[in-house]
Amino acid sequence: MNRKFILLIVISVSFNLCISSKPTRMIFIEQIYRLYESNLHTTHTDHKRNIFWLENCLSLPNIHPSQAIVVTKDWEEYVKYKLLLRFHIHYLLTKEYVDWGWEYDKRDIAFYNIEWAKEIKNSFEIAKSRYLIARRYWEETKKWSNLAYGKKLHIGWEQIEDLNYEIENNLFDYDYDTIIDMRLKDLERKIKIVDSYLAKNN
Known about the structure:
By secondary structure, the chain is mainly α. It has helices spanning 3-19, 29-38, 47-57, 75-105, 117-149, 158-168, 176-200. The longest helix is centred in the middle third of the chain and has 33 residues, at 117-149. The protein starts with a helix and ends with a helix.
């Protein structure tokens, strides 16, 4: 990881802590999650940055309930809030890894690029590794989604609760199970073409 980038994160978090109404030496999952949301990048060069934030915040504790993203009224609502937060972080990681994989996967095999077969195969292998990680995070997403949905409470986190409802009721348009399987199968097809070319030309 780029040292300048890590320094930027530390400075950003430190600044947020300094202006907090309740200063603390700890860093919490919500603070990094908010950094991700406020600094969201969508170009392929930034997937690594976004993933770095999201993966590292999963190991952090939750902030005090009074400073949570959604202020809840009782313990049961707070439990659902924590489940929804982890559900959404795993969902975002799934999306980031799928999108990152696509950056290495979007080329098809044609007569005008087959001469770069070794480079193309390497790109496809990277894409495959990203999709496999995405599948793991999608399984975690579904696990946390189910746990959150099992708490029959509405806490007012509309966008995340709507996403939770859609996934649990098969209303979500972007089924990552299907998408990841389709992309992995297509990668297998393209890698076979590349391997065949390499075998004939070595």
